[in-house]
Amino acid sequence: MGVASFQPVIGLEVHAQLLTRSKIFCGCSTQFGAQPNAHTCPVCLGMPGVLPVLNAQVVEFAVRAGLALGCRINARSVWARKNYFYPDLPKGYQISQYDQPLCEHGSLTIDLDGAEKRVGIRRIHMEEDAGKNIHDAGGGESLVDLNRAGVPLIEIVSEPDLRSSAEAVEYLKALRDVLVYLEINDGNLEEGSFRCDANVSVMRKGSTEFGTRAELKNINSFRFVQKAIDHEIARQVELIESGGKVLQETRLWDPDRGETRSMRSKEEAHDYRYFPEPDLPPLVVPAELVERVRASLPELPRDKLVRFQVDYGLPAYDARILVTDRALANFFEAVWKRYGTNPKKLANWFTGELQRLLKEEGKTVGALRFSAEQFAGLLRLVDGGEISGNAAKEVFAEMFRTGKEPARIVADRGLGLEKDSSAVEGAVDAVLAANAAEVEKYRAGKKQVLGFLVGQVMKAMKGKGNPAQVNAVLKSKLGD
Amino acid sequence: MKLSREQVRHVATLAHLALTEEEEAKVQEQLSAILEAMETLRELDTAEVEPTSHAVSEVGGWREDVVAPSLPPDKALANAPAKVGTSFAVPRILE
Amino acid sequence: MELTDLSLLELSRKLAAGEASSVEAVRASLARIGRLDGKVKAFLLLDERGAVAAAQASDARRKAGAPLGPLDGVPVALKDLFCTEGLATTAGSRVLQGFVPPFDGTAVRLLKASGLPILGKTNMDEFAMGSSTENSGFFPSRNPWDLTRSPGGSSGGSAAAVAARMAFGALGTDTGGSIRQPAALTGTVGLKPTYGRVSRYGVVAFASSLDQVGPFARTVSDVAALLGVVAGHDPCDATSSTRPVPAYLETLEQGVKGLRLGMPREYFELEGLDGEVRAAVEAACRAFEKLGASLVPISLPHTKYALATYYLVAPAEASSNLARYDGVRYGLRVPGRGLREMYAGTRDRGFGAEVKRRILLGTYALSAGYYDAYYLKAQKVRTLIKRDFEAAWGQVDAIVSPTAPTAAFRLGEKVDDPLAMYANDVFTLPCNLAGLPGMSLPCGFTRSGLPIGLQILGKHFDEATMLRVGRAFERAHDFVRAPPLGEA
To answer: From 1.10.3470, 1.10.1660, 1.10.20, 1.20.120, which CATH number describes the B5-43 domain?
Structure first.
């Protein structure tokens, strides 16, 4: 009884806006944030007599996605009209691909709880986005902005291979990372450039027949993906167990109420009356284009993640942070090339200080004021005992802000550590002499007194003491 | 092939055409007659025939990803039956 | 002899020789329109100011010795299906009443770039759906040869304007015969080019895989010249061809010696073919033999399925193309409580009966459960029709037939019987389905003095041969006449 005796079956449809400069079928800008209808022309306004002309970059980006996701690229694919009425759909049809899409039969491997899972990708096709219909709160009106109409999309449809909301979230994150790596999408769920609909059904464990599925929409954060799917699974299980039947319908996720609601209205059932688009000849993708794109594919996120763990011996947690941002990963490797000693130490700097400062200053890796060489130089100073760990953080922060040479910063700020051992010995002797009681306690077995003594020596040396060195000298003088 | 009234109504709804009772009847009659004339196509065996969706097979030209000037919003909206600012205004869907 | 009695090329030569000015030509046309169009009703809209301004610019260019376009200064008319910037465009429909396009279609732009003044927009069957211009949302046009009869359709207004010598030439569109059939009924020359020869950008779409832009004029040479101005590749139309445009005028006079002309049995054996039409066309064929061509009987076995095929494919595409007329962004809006009422009210008031009929037919043919039996089936039969022609080209260089089964019919005669109206296009439809070029030129008159048209079909992109055949016939005969409008 209950959710445990059911197997959820989930398939995801992702619509990702492509980062082209102009729209898919006309030359209007795709840039976000303009005044309503400032990026429109007769074509994307759906005026009488207009015709679509395909943006070559859209094909290139779609092929890139198809290859990165292991799909077969169909040399010939067909454009189709999807017919329905809505104010944000100016022509009364959307140009999409139906019967013969560009890409098919790919997959994406995800990692969850230490296990690997291969999620099938059924198809990827290109289509145009619709405009925006904003319901005016005041009057009984809606306002239509067609700036977004005609922005290119790829639709990525997975096989129903996912078996939990956690898997679904992993798949989405992994998919997003791939698209961002390919520089074809900005991966922004909240702003709607990466949209996800979930098809959810349940079947009794042990059964071979899939249950009826419901389509969930309006999921615009990873948190909501998890919540909406879990809620829907529970709803369906309860429905079935109380003798009801799951209906094939579209349900809207309501984040305020934490539930899904049926979108079925007395409206006509959606008969999209697909037929081949007469204004666009079938799409023929030359083999030469596919090979060129294949040759220029970057190392994909998962491959990089695995490599960072294997080659650098980094734990998965660190590797993940480094790999999420391709530029960050590249910078790590650039610094590593010049540093080459302790990868974990370097990784700590990246996941610690660098991430902190990037976030604080709202900067990206691409806009760093310092170089890989300088970063490596700073680390060498620490390793060589020239400065303390804390001082290094200070130097790093200034280097981050000014791009100054780390050695320069150390000199200007007088942060260099005392390397002369006689100075250290002198300070230690003085402290030991002044703290006889503590020395007694130490010798009596209270080893933690050492920390206090170290602190005293550091104070006496005015921060110029190398903590490791001070520690060693103290211990030896204390007779350990 | 005779169309039922129900079918006429369904198709009219899909096409967002409001027909009066009288119009429905006339359309039913005329469309049925036309569809009946189309029945002759059944005589032909087209199992092995590819459909023609483009009369002349030319591989279409693509365009470069270059931004071209858009219409200024006032021109884009010059023919708008109703607008608010530079947005088109439409009545809401009544549930 | 009036300026307006000149053919398009004759006027062009007179302008070149400085014997007339473009402004004079425009004013003469406008004056004639003023005298006659009250009766003929070819025009929906006149643009006197624009036409005169363009004429003045042309005359100024000529005077200054500046480069001139071909046919610079020759006034023409445009079917109201062409989007013209700043000039109302209705497609013959109330749903587009008041719509002023912010852009010129490509064919329009090419005409303007060549210096042709545009007199105005001509009447048409609404959204190009019809064969009589009676489906115009505004009023029917009349045949200058008999004002109680139709000039044909859907480009009836353009045909009537040229026939009545109110314009030296005109552009129309042809989806199932809408240029050729009106040309036949009005004793003018009309040509539909190969699909993809002329850009469709800016032409309000009816059936996208069939629509083509083409010229009307009084003679074959005129039509060849006008075609040359608008033909060619357009980056704004992905279905337009990149093939180079031949110089049609240069090969026009080559005659028909040695050419093989096919006579399709199924066309000549059609039951509804009027006796007088048959006689005139058969006489034309015999004339071709005298001129040195050989006549070859051919068979286009799937001809009888063409009507059904067309009337499934065209309305299906039209039902989708006309979905944009929803009252949201331009044209008519009938307010309603809620969006759906607005859509329905707008489309109900905006569309006429024939358009509604075809939208419903097309929607049905595409709908779930019926797509395979109707739309897909029709597209497959379309392939068979194409193959008929491909086989024929193995035996002949061009095909000749009647253009329409009858001469001009009376207004009101067929308007209530859609199937009877559709039957006007039996000879013209198949070539649209195959994407082939076709033209009509006058080849005789009925006893009651109504024009009869001869249709010539050519191979893909072989307008040159088609024009050559037409020109040979025209040279040897005298069927280019003025209708008896009782005006000089």
So the answer is: 1.10.20
